[in-house]
Amino acid sequence: MSLVKEIEEKGATLAWSPLGSMPNVVALGTKDSGAGGFDDYGGQLEIHRLDFAERGLKCSVAGSIKTNGKFSSIAWSPMANFSAEFTGGLIAGGMNDGTINLWDPAKLMASHPQAQLGSMKHHSGAVSGLHFNPNAGSHHLLASGGADSAVLIHALDRPDTPKQPFVPAPDPGAAKHTAEVSRVAWNTQVPHILASAAANGAVHVWDLRQKKSWCELRDAKKGSISDLCWNPAEGLQLVTAMGDDSNPVINMWDLRSSTTMPLAQLQGHTQGILSMSWCPSDTSLLLSCGKDSKTFVWDLYERRPVFELSAEEASAPAGGGG
Fold first, then answer.
1. pLDDT by residue (tens digit) across 185-208?
2. Spatial CA neighbour of 83 closest among 21, 155, 162
3. Percent of the chain scored above 90 by pLDDT?
4. 0.70 cut: is pTM over it?
5. Using CA atoms, how far apart are residues 222 and 227, in angstroms rounded to an integer?
6. For the chain, is the Cβ count within 10 Å smaller at the N or the C terminus?
7. Looking at 187-272, which runs of residues are DSSP E strands?
8. Could you give the strand order of the β-sheet that contains 285-290, starting from the edge strand earlier in sequence?
């Protein structure tokens, strides 16, 4: 495997375009300070085109805009149920100060002066998890999780005038997270099911119709969960990744079998896992990358890596040249 495109010197959080009309487009929200100095608190949202038909590693910037803060998370919705109004979908950025900003990517790529549609602040800490509902008819629903341990649902059918968010379990005595929420993920099959993971190893699966936690999964070592993914084709299976260097494993869960013990555990990384992606076209394959600078492709049937991409291999351009 060889490098075909790269975006250099960007400490950023990334979201791929979910639109079939522009599949090779990504949005980047900067996370690092760069060389701006102690008083540089701002960031930048950039949209890049990855033209794989064009030789060379460089990508073209299709649009960019300065932001008042730095990104902790980013998400991109196709907004299919509002496609006439949002031809490029909708981008949400979770910022370090608890703000969620909303942009129209079509306007941003057209250099429109009002590409930012709105802003809302309901978290008291960094918004570390963002995910738009992938189910048809629900693309306007955005879930957010923050350093304040809160999980919120935002209805963005009118991004310029967003409604007050609601919590998955409003009852004061209902189960809630007690540590920073690191990730949120909507179920791929059932639009009213949401999972959220926290830094103390707890995962809540929320039933928004019942307005309560459907179940809680716990890591026995109470390690920090860095990412979680639902099976793209099976609504009762998910995986959780551990971000701790002392226990860098991926736990596979089947909620029909057990909510107390994982179905299996994938071991291969030598340092904490950063993120995962479950292949939507072949659900036997899972991609993971870690602090050990390695990327694995896992065969979930055999529960072992079938391909490993090291940092050295990733930096080698296709064809041995630029």
1. 999 999 999 999 999 999 999 999
2. 21
3. 80
4. yes
5. 14
6. C
7. 193-198, 202-207, 212-218, 225-230, 237-242, 249-254, 264-267
8. 273-278, 285-290, 294-299, 304-310
